[in-house]
Design brief:
With 523 residues, the chain is of the alpha/beta class. The protein contains 22 helices and nine strands. The strands form three sheets. It has a five-stranded mixed sheet with strand order 5-4-3-8-9, with helices on both faces. A two-stranded antiparallel ribbon has the order 1-2. Strands 6-7 form a two-stranded antiparallel sheet. Helix 9 packs antiparallel against helix 12.
């Protein structure tokens, strides 16, 4: 009997059920096609489809302070960060007038003008025949002064100004500078800033109770790559690489260290990733457990015969990931740090938690075709929103009783059967991530979302849109370093302008403590 004969004999109810099922499958296929198109567009460097509007769960579940619905508060008095200069304006008045004091009128202004300084350096010839030349003032490094260098760095990294526009702006002010010279101001001699940015990461990973992570597309040397963000409420750090794999993420977590280490953490990682028992035994029993670089590590695997194994999972890959994780732990990084992510596979290492905003978004963007589907979707979203609000309340006042009650409620929400097949499958998938979604019950200090990372990485997205990609490795590293330093200054409530002034030895700039020291301080 052909399928058409079955349809001829089917009842109206059966046909309706079949149509709804087919619509669900079509919706799933449409989602797969949309994701594939977005990936193809990203690989080609094209713009992807517009993202779905946010659900608003975070804002809707915020606790409003009492009395917030009343009259709007005023802005209060302004605080100026500069010394106020007094100028007395004299009025022309008729004879016999009485002086009644002064009426205050305050303005803010900016003086931008080019300055060319010719240093006439004394030269002396000593009795011994040596020549002594008077040293340049502090902060002078090259033929552009520190104030100009600060202006260029702040405009490019914080103001997101492109290099051609920056050249045009400087020329309009009266500075004789070429595009190549501006590029050199941005890249050359920035090793101390790059070192400080790396130390910020080490301080953050060594002291943070939690970090959030995210990545976005980035172009480098005309090739598609990825920029990864790591940070929390006290620091931010960025790195652009050619991969977004778990191996790449573990390399970033080493914070600049290049070694590979076999220790208890490494062996536990390998066991958790189902590496062969004999391979783990070989690595554990060998007398050499520390390897200076990748070449030494791969040579060690080759000597043990691991490279010749052709099995799944790839033993070289898993062993290398484990040795990287061992290096992270050996350097005192990510000790008890919870890594909060959007469920991207490369970030699932160590103590891992999931973002509730991304989890709810999966329910929010489901395609519905009937009133019953829409009602089921809205009901589940309402339950998730209420649960999310109670998780926030638990963070403010945790207790064992509330913890147990929330675990039971989680099961009731995500084990329910709604009759909407696609939604039921999604709920089952989310329930499988129960431990990571409810990590906050054991660690109330961690955030429920990755909004912190998404806000940080938005600057990288803006830079990608207005400037494209980087051409040199130094340019890429400086862009990532200064972006992280600027974001870290903002989180620490430090003026990035003052930070640059202190680091460039500009006279009169307030002293700024080494940022890693501030990041390491307890909150």
């Amino acid at each position: 009997m052909s399928p058409s004969d079955d349809l001829e004999k089917a009842s109206l109810s059966d046909l309706r059920t079949l149509v709804i099922s087919l619509l669900g499958e079509v919706a799933t296929l449409k989602q797969v096609v949309a994701e594939q198109r977005a990936e193809i567009a990203r690989l080609k460097g094209l713009k992807g489809p517009p993202s779905i509007r946010p659900s608003g769960m975070e804002q809707a579940t915020e606790t409003k302070p009492p009395g917030s619905g009343g009259r709007r508060r005023g802005r209060g008095s302004k605080r100026y960060g500069v010394t106020i200069e007094d100028r007395i304006l004299v009025a022309e008045v008729p004879a016999g007038s009485r002086f009644k004091g002064h009426e205050i009128y305050l303005i803010q202004d900016l003086v931008v003008r080019p300055v060319a300084i010719r240093f006439r350096r004394e030269r002396w010839l000593t009795p011994d025949g040596d020549t002594i030349v008077a040293p340049l003032p502090p902060g002078i490094d090259g033929h552009f002064g520190p104030e100009l260098r600060r202006f260029v760095l702040a405009q490019y990294h914080q103001g997101q100004v492109t290099i051609p526009r920056l050249v045009a702006l400087l020329a309009a002010i009266g500075i004789a500078v070429s595009k190549r010279q501006v590029v050199r101001l941005l890249i050359d001699g920035q090793d101390r800033f790059r070192a400080e940015a790396l130390d910020v990461l080490r301080a953050g990973l060594g002291s943070a109770a939690w970090v959030t992570v995210d990545d976005t597309g980035a172009r480098h040397q005309a090739q598609n790559g990825f920029c990864t963000q790591i940070g929390n409420d006290r620091f931010a750090w960025f790195a652009t690489t050619g991969s977004k794999s778990r191996l790449n993420f573990l390399e970033l977590l080493r914070a600049g260290h290049g070694d590979y280490v076999i220790n208890a953490a490494a062996l536990a990682y390998m066991k958790g990733r189902a590496l062969s028992g004999p391979v783990i035994h070989q690595l554990a029993q060998h007398e050499t457990v520390h390897f200076a670089d990748r070449a030494a590590w791969l040579a060690h695997l080759d000597r043990l015969g691991v490279t010749a194994l052709k099995v799944t999972p790839d033993p070289v890959l898993i062993a290398t990931e484990g040795a990287l994780w061992g290096s992270v732990k050996a350097h005192g990084l990510v000790n008890d740090t919870v890594i909060v992510s959007d469920d991207a596979g490369q970030f699932q290492v160590g103590h891992h938690a999931l973002c509730w905003i991304h989890a709810e978004r999966l329910v929010h963007k489901l395609d519905t075709f009937t009133d019953q589907h829409r009602a089921a979707q809205q009901r589940v979203r309402d339950l998730i929103w209420r649960f999310y609000r109670d998780l926030k309340a638990y963070q403010a006042n945790p207790s064992p009783q509330r913890r147990a009650a929330l675990r039971v409620r989680f099961d009731r929400i995500f084990k329910r059967q709604t009759g909407f097949v696609t939604l039921d499958r999604l709920l089952a998938r989310l329930h499988a991530n129960k431990a990571e979604l409810l990590a906050v019950l054991d660690r109330p200090e961690i955030p429920l979302h990755t909004n912190n990372s998404e806000n940080d990485i938005r600057s990288q997205v803006t830079r990608r849109k207005v400037s494209g990609g980087t051409r040199s490795d130094a340019g890429r590293d400086c862009r990532d370093a200064f972006l992280g330093l600027a974001k870290t200054c903002t989180k620490l409530r430090i003026s990035f302008w003052d930070y640059l002034g202190d680091r460039l030895n500009i006279a009169g700039s307030p002293p700024i403590t080494y940022l890693p020291e501030l990041v390491s301080l307890p909150p």
